[in-house]
Amino acid sequence: MSRRIPKLPRSVIRFFEDQAAKAKKRKNDLRTWTRFMVVLLYLREPSLSVRAVGRCYQTSRRSVYRWVNAYRAGGIQALRTQEPAPGALGRRLRSILPILLQLPPSFFGLARTTWTSDALALTLDKKFALRCHPAHVRRILRSTGFTWSRARPMPKRIAGRREMLAELAERLELLPGDVDVLFSDEADIHLNPKIGFGWTRRGEQRQVRTPGTNQKAFVVGALSARSGALWVRQIERKTGEHFFEFLNWLALQQPPGKRWVLVLDNAAIHKGERLRAWLQANPQAEIIFLPGYSPDANSIELVWRAVKLAVVYNHSCSSLPELMDRVFAYFEQHGAFEYRAPALPLNFAQSTKMDHDDSANETSQLQQSERAGTVPIACAAI
Predict the structure, then answer these.
(1) In Å, what is the CA distance from 207 to each residue of 193, 195, 373?
(2) Is residue 202 classed as helix, strand or coil in its secondary structure?
(3) pLDDT at 353
(4) What CA–CA distance (Å, rounded) separates 215 from 13?
(5) Residue 260: phi, psi to the nearest 5?
(6) What digits encode the pLDDT tens for the residues 269-278?
(7) Which of 169, 181, 208, 178 is nearest to 192 (CA)?
(8) Which long-range contacts does 197-205 make (Cβ < 8 Å, 24+ apart)?
(9) CA–CA distance, 136 with 145 (Å, rounded to integer)
(10) How many CA atoms lie within 13 A of 338 on its CB side?
(11) Ordered DSSP codes for 124-182
């Protein structure tokens, strides 16, 4: 015998279907989706028995009656999955755990620097007489808005650093359009691969072979803040002698007679008598030093980070020359490195971009002809 149920308007049917689709897609909440579909079928097809409705979605007659009654009493909101009300233990954990995470583990006598769920469960048991499983601690933390994430290093800050960077940005942005601004620094490339993230099948873990004995190579480069052009060279060691050899090579890559500015950090190898002698020999160049402890103001640091993420992480090279070949191949293929340091995001007007196709610069012309349509990426290994 069919049930006596008024015919549902099409708008109600469409609303039910939309809510069921959202429940299934947004949170993958199959229980809410099942309730929506069972109630919709019950109301839409009066000719079907309650047993047949339940059989369509593999549920019992009692569940069908319960969900239909809940809908009639509380509307569609009553069909959604409700989070269970926390008990006495859950309420105490929600109030204590945020306070614990603001204190270091050493405050409670633990010889560690990072809170884990095991360490939190142990501290809750010993200091607060609250015994719970570490998995329950993780559930409570997630429900209160905490996640397990990697910390970010913060460089040392000096007084007035923000003001000095603002003055430097204003000074660089007011330079004439034909004056290029280069950011320079060195980087280490290790043969032992850094381990990073990558796509693997669930339940499997990628294995990265290591050479056993680590070796290091060094590169030094300069990045144009106007065009994204990169000049990079491999050096034997990070010394003042090798750095100024790079500066001499870099000066030859610039258009003759044109002024350019080089921005450096305060490393000892960038200063001294060699610097004064080099500036006298290269009057078209100007050196500007960043405030101390400001790697986030040097845009070439983003280049080093990019090449390490792309080439050095999870690499399988067995020798340092093979790895360096891949590093320089990445530089060649990348094109313009249009990076802006987060602490010094320079904004040059479009009309002030450098033109690296200067007819007097034969080296730049050669690089442009070899890489048509790109800015010059000059690489050399010594």
Answers:
(1) 11, 10, 39
(2) coil
(3) 37
(4) 68
(5) -145, 155
(6) 999 999 999 9
(7) 208
(8) 198/314
(9) 15
(10) 8
(11) HHHHH-----HHHHHHHHHHTT-------------TTHHHHHHHHHHHHHTS-TT-EEE
Residue 107 DSSP class? G
Checking if the pLDDT of 104 tops 80, the result is yes
How remote is the C-alpha of 372 from its chain's centroid? 31
Token pair, residue 331, equals 């530089």
| All residues at 6 or more sequence positions from 335 whose CB lies less than 8 Å from its CB, including other chains | 228, 374, 375, 377
Q: What local confidence, expressed as pLDDT, does residue 203 receive?
A: 85
Sole residue written with tokens 């990697």: 150
Q: In whole angstroms, how far apart are CA 378 and each of 87, 210, 324?
A: 66, 30, 15
Mean pLDDT throughout 325-349? 90
**String of b and e for 163-198 (b: at least 16 CB within 10 Å)?**
ebbeebbeebeebeeebbbbbbbbbebebebeeeee
What residues have CB less than 8 Å from 312, skipping those under 6 apart?
189, 190, 193, 194, 323, 327
Residues 6+ apart with CB under 8 A from 187: 218, 219, 220, 221, 304
* CA distances, 11 to each of 15, 17, 76, 278 (Å): 6, 10, 14, 79
